[in-house]
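Example S7 (structure tokens).
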């Protein structure tokens, strides 16, 4: 993940759901004996498909072992090159804000977390993740390799691969400490969010229409909640880091889909970078909140055409200068 000892693609905030391979294979077919020929053909297709799955499993295990070895050897360059090209582009973009040593720090964090733990590559779990919008190009397969003794470990190394590619480049890598996530509740003022199980999507509907009011799910690093109005427009998205549940990042949206607000909260109080937008997508104001809701540094204000209208400088909440 981008914030701690894992790296996973944000996937543009597209909601995903886990579908077992058996369910993918068995969907939509009955047992009518009058369709014997179709059944025979389908059985042959199943055998071919399952053979393809087995081959992909071998490739995935081999690639995962190779990436783990790169981590242990602290080969930062080749570790970076082990990702899909789209992910490498996102890493490069993220490094602009996180720093050029981002990959090095991540590999070092992986080594510290692994601490010579034994990875069981023979007994893995596998899940197919399908974007809810049906974009098959974003289908990816998640492999979970137990850490520690067989059938006795709550932790695992997790890698994923784009389903349409050849399983020689990873889409994501993560070390999951399952024992740190047992039915945790996030309590921030009036908020109380129970973390769903991995792969579970929880929805809340409007009583009168049955339309979706809120959905909640968990990825490898965050609890994510998405709110909708009665016309099914997304009004807000909140992301709680699983390793710091008193903190959240919040994005609010206008009805036209443009972002209205980007803000962060710690124990219910706004903190860090803060940006508001006009409805046309232009920035309205931007600045930084320090501790205790105190503005700090330079704050800028713009009109709807994007023209700078005012600049303020604060020091620990005190206005120092206005231009």
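Recovered sequence:
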């Amino acid at each position: 993940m981008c914030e701690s000892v894992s790296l996973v693609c944000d996937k543009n905030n597209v909601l995903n759901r886990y579908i077992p391979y058996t369910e993918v294979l068995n969907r939509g077919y009955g047992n009518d004996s009058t369709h014997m020929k179709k059944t025979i053909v389908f059985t042959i297709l199943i055998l071919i498909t399952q053979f393809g799955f087995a081959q992909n499993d071998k490739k995935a295990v081999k690639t995962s072992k190779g990436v783990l070895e790169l981590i242990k050897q602290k080969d930062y360059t080749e570790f970076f090159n082990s990702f899909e090209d789209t992910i490498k582009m996102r890493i490069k973009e993220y490094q602009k804000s996180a720093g050029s040593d981002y990959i090095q720090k991540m590999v070092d964090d992986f080594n510290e977390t692994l601490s010579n733990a034994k990875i069981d590559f023979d007994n893995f779990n596998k899940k197919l993740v399908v974007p809810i919008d049906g974009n098959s190009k974003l289908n990816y397969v998640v492999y979970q390799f137990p850490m520690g003794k067989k059938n006795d470990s709550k932790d695992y190394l997790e890698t994923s691969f784009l389903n349409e590619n050849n399983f020689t480049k990873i889409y994501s890598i993560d070390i999951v400490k399952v024992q740190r996530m047992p039915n945790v509740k996030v309590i921030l003022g009036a908020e109380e969010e129970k973390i769903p199980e991995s792969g579970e999507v929880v929805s809340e509907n409007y009583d009168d229409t049955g339309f979706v009011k809120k959905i909640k799910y968990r990825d490898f690093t965050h609890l994510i909640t998405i709110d909708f109005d009665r016309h099914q427009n997304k009004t807000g998205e909140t992301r709680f880091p699983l390793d710091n549940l008193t903190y959240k990042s919040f994005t609010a949206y206008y009805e036209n889909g443009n972002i209205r607000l980007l803000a962060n909260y710690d124990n219910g109080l706004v903190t860090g970078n803060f940006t508001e937008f006009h409805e046309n997508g232009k920035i309205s104001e931007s600045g930084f909140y320090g501790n205790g809701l105190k503005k700090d540094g330079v704050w800028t204000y713009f009109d709807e055409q994007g023209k700078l209208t005012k600049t303020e400088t604060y020091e620990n909440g005190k206005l120092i200068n206005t231009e």
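Notes on this example. The chain has two domains: 6-179, 185-322.
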